[in-house]
Design goal:
The protein is built from 3 helices and 5 strands; from the N terminus they run ββααβββα. It has 102 residues and is α+β, with helices and mostly antiparallel strands. It has a single domain, classed as YaeB-like fold.
Length: 102
């Protein structure tokens, strides 16, 4: 395992290798919908100086069924770029837990 995290800089934020691996393992339509969700909501993510933030998200698949996911983001005032650290599909129960803890 590499000692340093590698990032890809895109559209005003950095994308970690873990994020790229996770999203590339998903169905292409799901990945595109998650990317659009992130693009739409990236400005609403709070800054946190010390730790990453894990947020829950939900998109609708082609059959109008919900797909829930957790997104790990690092956004602080010292960095000009937000880092998309990881994304994972999660069960609805975990998504609701993330909503409850805000």
């Amino acid at each position: 395992m590499d000692a340093e995290q590698k990032y890809i800089r895109e559209a005003g934020y950095d994308v970690a290798e873990d994020f790229m691996e996770s999203i590339s393992d998903m169905d292409i339509r799901t990945g595109i919908k998650i990317a659009k969700f992130i693009e739409k909501n990236i400005d609403n993510i709070p800054t946190n100086k010390l730790i990453s933030t894990v947020l829950g998200g939900v998109i609708m698949d082609d059959e109008n069924e919900p797909i829930t996911f957790a997104l790990e983001i690092i956004k602080n005032k010292e960095s000009e770029f937000t880092i998309l650290s990881d994304v994972q599909l999660i069960p609805m129960d975990e998504y609701l837990d993330l909503l409850n803890i805000k």
